[in-house]
TrEMBL record:
Major localization listed first in the record, in broad terms: nucleus
Keyword Phosphoprotein in annotation: no
Domain of life: Eukaryota
Compartments reported by the entry: Nucleus
Protein name: Fe2OG dioxygenase domain-containing protein
Single annotated GO MF: dioxygenase activity
Source species: Rhypophila decipiens
Domain Fe2OG dioxygenase: 120-245
Protein keywords: Dioxygenase, Iron, Metal-binding, Nucleus, Oxidoreductase
Amino acid sequence: MTDPSSGSVRLPQSLEHARIPNLPPSAFYMADFISEEEEKLILEKIERAPKARWRQLTHRRLQTWPSDLVRGDTLLDTTPLPDWLKDPVIPRLLSIPVSSDSDTEAQSSSHIFAASPHKQPNHVLINEYPPETGIMPHKDGGAYHPVVCTVSLGSSLCLNLYKAKEDGGIDPDPVWRILQEPRSLLITTQDLYTEYLHGIEPIAVDADLSEETVANWSLLRSPSDFAEGKNSRETRISLTYRDVLKVSKLGGLLNRRP
């Protein structure tokens, strides 16, 4: 379905229509989740954020909204997400039913965060990936409800999914590759959250791109953009929406005894 108020936005009738084929049935991709104008406005808000909001890592930087987690797994209930991170992303996430059930009431209660503690995301991580920048394979851990919604801005790149070995190591070859285009939404949950690791190679060009090597090829906005089998990266910004399980009032947290 198309959102007529949002230009080029195209939302599926349900997540069933956005499921990535050949992956476990817990990954979904929408190429036109936000419009070009919305992408521009969000990028402007990110750029205008106070310098103190940025945390500089070795090769990239990030912002955490509304705040970092304390004790590694708890969000302080102090300030909500700013409006520019809520609208239009969160209302759209909650508007898409998981299934195509004809029962309107059932649809309204079956969105991707329906089983999470707060029924919607309460935390956003903004990562900036210049070309030749990536992130090591990792899992997101137990601080979050096992649903990750990632909006990509600015440029395309491949996300790699890895399987851990029985000895605890990681197979260096990805099991699957997902190509994330600007303005797209990727949702991973269930087994893809708990059993697999995800990472981004620190390269300037994603190569060997084709229908055989990219899991979401059939769902891309413009497969023809990658007809030569490669994607030259520019700076890409990702917005990662999750629901932190533990939320605490500041006073209650400080009054806890170790």
